[in-house]
Amino acid sequence: MKLMECVPNFSEGRDHAVLDAIAAAMRSVKNAVLLDVDPGADTNRTVFTLAGEPEAVVEAAFQAIKKAAELIDMSKHHGAHPRMGATDVCPFIPISGMTMEECAEYARKLGKRVGDELGIPVYLYENAASKEEWQNLAHVRSGEYEALPEKAKDPAWKPDFGPQVFNARSGATAISAREFLIAYNINLNTRDKKKAHALAITIRESGKSARDKAGKLIRDENGNKVVIPGLFTHCKAVGWYIDSYDRAQISINLTNYKITPPHLVLEKVRELASEMGIQVTGSELVGLIPKAALLEAGKYYLRRLGESTGIPERMIMETAIQSMGLAELGPFDLDKKVIEYAIARPDSLCSLSLQDFADLLSTDAPAPGGGSVAALCAALSGALSAMVANLTVDKKGYESVQDKVRELAPRGQEIKLQALQCIDSDTDAFNAMMEATRLPKKTDEEIAFRNAELEKTTQQAILVPLRTLELAWEAMQLADKVADAGNANALSDAGVAALTALSAAKAADYNILINLSGSSNDAFKADIRSRAAELINKCQELAGEIESKVRNRI
User: In which domain, by residue range, is 450 found?
Assistant: First the structure.
């Protein structure tokens, strides 16, 4: 599932009626979740954080920018933070299932709409920048709001979108795509700010000034200070003392966790601090974190422990929480601190108990139905294969297959998670198709629009079970591998994994076939029929082989 974050900054931090109106504009958009509002009275600036499906996030951002343009008058604005517009900056950040270029394209899409519909000059920066010099936000915002009248006369400052005029009320807006910023603090068993800062300047990208044995600055032949680079790129850090915690911390901003992840920074600080006689007591996450970052940390510590990484993702993240001391200063609630969990839909079928799911399934409600059950079977198959692999990890007599089963267990977890997503996706696709059938059809335009929506939603109602069928085939292949390499005491479980994968495949195929008649696209239908038939044949053939193998060995 594609998820994107947006962190727009508005030039208002004191008038809460304005902030409430902007928040309401964001909340009015379905499938975009407002996660946080952080106002600053001194800076007269507020940072909003929202996330969700990309199209919804773009729409919510536009509605917020529109509302800010109505309510914020930049000609009267004063604050400590650099700014040039009512909506000063609006960056998009990929969370899951998205590339940076996709975020940049959404930035361009929003920029064009803001420029065209609201008449606000828009400059693209960072990964969406149209000019190399505009990658740096400080350059784009040089001179701030007060410089905009002169920039409106300079051809070199023609905005990417919108008119090259001075918009006295709204100023200009900078829109971008960038990596996720993780605000992360490391706790020390000292109150000495200097010691914390010494560690900070050692790890941060900008490094520290070189000094000789006498402590004097070292300069090069041109008289410039020699700088010793820090140990980590994409890392900004300072040392400070926090009175409420009665301890010193290293305050860190990680601007690209994919290159510099928090757990590796923590481990290096632990090493350096120990050399100074300092103890790292734990760490603190400020704000939210992408699931991928915490999963990678958990897997890192599980590997160091020699344990399987093919366990449920919440267990992996709990390992990260414990290993990094993230709950030292207060509870660490995964549902509030992990972005994907924080924006999770409250009506998810996957969140139901088995009893509630079965009860709902048994009513006359049109969904969930067979498609969701097919996806559930695929998820159960992946889970069973992961179980067999985990029952083989570190078991005597299975030394020769340890590398293999340590790879198979995580793959089972991946199939499980992807199939679980299909449970809700199948119901969503069915509901969307039903909504399309209820569209008006009185005029030629309404008929044409309704037909187009019916075709689009019908194809989606076919593509979801096709994805379930593909996952069923992957689950079948995995069951075959764990049947060969897995613990012999769990051989029957490998067989059940194959049977549930076959059930998932056949059930998904039924859902494909029943919906194909609703599509009017012959080329699409022919392609789907061919792909589904090939997958079903392969699933049935391999299922037969696994059943023979299992029965002969039991």
Answer: 349-553
Residues 355 and 265 in one domain: no
Write down the catalytic residue from 81, 139, 192, 428.
81
Tell the burial category of 486 from Cβ atoms under 10 Å away from its Cβ (0-12, 13-18, 19+).
buried
Give the domain-ending residue among 280, 314, 342.
342
Q: Are 139 and 124 in contact (CB under 8 A)?
A: no
Same domain for 145 and 9: yes
Residues in the chain: 554
* Domains in the chain, number: 3
pTM: 0.86
Of 177, 206, 235, the residue at which a domain comes to its end is 177
258 and 203 co-located in one domain = yes
Q: In whole angstroms, what is the distance from residue 290 CA to residue 95 CA?
A: 6
Model confidence pLDDT, tens digit, residues 255-276: 999 999 999 999 999 999 999 9
527 classed as catalytic: no
**CATH (domain of 284):** 3.30.70.670
Q: At what angle do helices 100-118 and 54-71 cross, to 10 degrees?
A: 30
CA terminus-to-terminus distance, the chain: 40
Q: How many CA atoms lie within 13 A of 497 on its CB side?
A: 35
Out of 88, 160, 424, 426, which one is annotated catalytic?
A: 426
pLDDT in tens, 119-175: 999 999 999 999 999 999 989 999 999 999 999 999 999 999 999 999 999 999 999
- The CA-CA-CA angle for residues 107, 113, 118, to 5°, reads 125
81 classed as catalytic: yes
3-class DSSP string for 135-184: HCHHHHCCCCHHHHHHHCCCHHHCCCECCCCCCCCCECEEEEECCCCEEE
Tell me if 46 sits within 8 A of 9, measured CB to CB.
Answer: yes
